[in-house]
Amino acid sequence: MIAIDTNVLVRLLVRDDLTQAKRAAALFEKNEIYICKTVMLETEWVLRFSYLLSAPVIVNALRNVIGLPQTTIEDISAVGEALSLYEVGMDFADALHLCSNGEATSFATFDKRLKQRAHKAAPGRQIEIP
User: Which domains does the chain carry?
Assistant: First the structure.
């Protein structure tokens, strides 16, 4: 199994450098791939800020990656849930933080906008402003 960096995943998805895109695709075809959730987080940021892609396009791209049979995603349940929250209006980073809180019963933040969006997108989550 090979863990990949964000730049490999971005080349696979965006294909703006044909040589690197082919090399990334070959890596995925020939190997079991491990993707850390931090790579998913950074990939979303790069696609949104550097490539100006919309949330629906990014969600679709990342879900396609998750669906690849030879790919393992770290904490897949948190990443999948975060993508669902992102799809309905939360910031992906905030959603991933919220969904990655393990056994914690609540989530504390000073970000009032995060709390508002989370209550709308994930009403069952306990969000506190200390």
Answer: 2-124 (3.40.50)
